[in-house]
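Changelog-adjacent note: as of this version, every example in the card shows the full chain rather than a window. The one below runs 222 residues end to end.
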Amino acid sequence: MRRVAQREVLEHWLTCEGLGSNGGSTRSRSNADETLDRLLRAKPGAAAFLWQDAPIRWYHTRLSTDRLASLRVIEGPENMLWNALSSDGTVGGAATRIVDGDASTLREETGVDVARIEQLAERVATTPATLPDLVCVRRRPWEQAFVADGNHRAVATVVAARRAGTFDGREDAAARRDATPRVGTYLGVGANRPSTDLRRAANSVWWSIRRRLGGDSEPNGF
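Full-length structure tokens:
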């Protein structure tokens, strides 16, 4: 695992979206703030954590397939899209449904492009090192990381491993790690700031109490 600059991660993410820089010298490339602005404009929801949880420490590592399966899918409403596809909210949970289910049926039920995952899984089975690195985030050091960019690639990798028989809970964990390829991953870790979180929550509760005492109703039903 190595430390990396946030700009490296953002440029990688933009490249995966087809919005990367056109090369050239470092002088001609956008600065860090411009890179962040470009990504937030392109992915306002998925990349919102970049300003909500700043500052973020970034690392580059390689995850085994069993570690990859334990990651959570991208954040979103319950029972919609990726959270509808995965029974437990993890990459492994989504892969299990795909291995055991039908792509067209799952697409209709969840809205996730399962056919694309199947195509990527076939690609991983033949040339596992060709998929771009994932971008994952752990909002707080004690929280479980989730996949911010690369959910299709992450699930496809686990699907391919399970179909190849290199991911089986009955196997010895060490043997499984040796048998499965490792996936390049950028991992961002948010700051450890419980006092800030507590202050934010207290302000929200106090605001709600004042509104209720004033006779106003809460739109979120607090």
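Structural remarks: The first strand starts at residue 2 and ends at 4.
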